[in-house]
Amino acid sequence: MMRTISDYLPAEHVDHQLFINGQFVDAADQSQFDCISPATGKRLCQVSSANEHDVDRAVKAARDAFNSGAWRDANVSHRKKILLRLAQLVESNAEKLAIIETWDTGKPIRDSRAVDMAGSVQMVRWFAESVDKLYDEIAPTDNPIVAQIRRTPLGVIAAVTPWNFPLLTALTKIIPALAVGNSVVLKPSELSPLSALYLARLGAEAGLPDGVLNVVTGSGGQAGAALGLHPDVDALLFTGSTATGKRFMQYSGASNLKKISLECGGKSANIVLDDCPDIDKAVQATANGIFFNAGQICNAGSRLILQRAIAEQFKLKLAAHLDNYKPGDPMDSATTLGSMISSGHADKVRGHIREAEQQGARIYAQARAWDGAGGFDATAWVPPTLIDQVNNSMRIAQEEVFGPVLAIMEVDTVDEALQTANDSQYGLAAAIWTSDMRTAHRAQQTLHAGFVWVNSVRAGHIATPFGGVKQSGFGRDKSLHAFDNVSYLKTTWYDYS
What we know:
Elements: E1 18-20, E2 23-25, E3 32-37, E4 42-48, H1 52-68, H2 76-92, H3 94-105, H4 109-130, E5 137-139, E6 145-153, E7 156-160, H5 166-179, E8 183-187, H6 194-206, E9 213-215, H7 220-229, E10 235-239, H8 242-254, E11 259-263, E12 269-272, H9 279-291, E13 303-307, H10 308-319, H11 343-358, E14 362-366, E15 385-388, H12 395-398, E16 405-411, H13 414-422, E17 426-427, E18 429-433, H14 437-446, E19 451-454, E20 469-470, E21 473-474, E22 487-495
Parallel strand pairs: 7-8, 7-10, 8-9, 10-11, 12-13, 12-18, 13-16, 15-16, 18-19
Antiparallel strand pairs: 1-2, 3-4, 5-6, 6-22, 11-21, 14-15, 17-20
Helix pairs in contact: 1-7, 2-4, 2-6, 3-4, 4-5, 9-10
């Protein structure tokens, strides 16, 4: 008989209510929605579904907590201590959180442990350690004037986060906000809400005052829109689709001009030139860059642009990597390819593949499909797929597929490669492989993207800012620049004349 989450985790560790003002509470109208495990297609539990009245309760709790000054006015050393305690709690509960994340998203447990949990602990620790290293400034004004410039918390921060890295992305948004003294209302994706609710429990245990961290679960159209339109939310941080990001811009204009930070879609180009310094390294990085997390990554290298002289060699080597991504029970440590977030999303990915073929592209190679043996929902798995003979006008080259599907294009020159890479509505990331540093420098100047890799793909560090341009959004996550999203600069003019 197939196991369920209860075989790995006691029911009391799976929270399912809203977390408002330090308490788990039902939605005001008792509404709930089914939380489905995509790997099995079966219900994990029912979760409270917030409406605008619940969102208003959460925002009021956050505002009251902010105005009380208990967190906002606490010494920086105290906020740092509490957040470091939270990091320790995330680390000591990492296995429980990894299990929750795997059942909620369908990703392999090995990735939940090694990537999501390790990254989550690092995220909390890094920002906790950073906050007491932010210095005020004194502007060079005329004597005897002193102009002080201070970074000041905005107030109530809303964070609306996606389903592909639920806990990690939530922490990326909320920890900088908490570190500088804001209060937070977090709305996780309704497709993966459970780790955010467990995080709320850990935040209370760490010592966050009531109302400083609130979690409202529910649909984007209801709870998310209510946060976007709420007149007492000072800033909204979002990761997700470009279409939804545009709606939050509209909500801001229709309400109180709240500050918006958007990390939206991507269609990142991965350029491999014929002077690539290490073909095998580039092949391995290309495979990981599109097939890790079943391709459900905003900065996945989903457009491969090959210089023609090495194209066939590269594709042959890349095709040999497909079988390294093994579908199976996500709780099995040998599984390296998890499910899509839902069978419905998997259908959309398969639709992109069919349409590409209809438009003249070709499936160059595809891993074998999985039958879902053991009671899993095979319709939620999409095999890693290489599609060549793609031109940049095809939808497969222009639209974000968000699955393990690589669109391959061939070019003759460096200029053609750069022009093709920039011919996109998105500008999240791009990569180029070359031995010529002059070419690399020209490429990084030319590529219109927020992050450019040279001789790597999807590398990064918490100290490096991450975000896009064009319709990939604006604002930066990670690094000290993340504090810009959740604070403002206040100038105080002291006249001693």
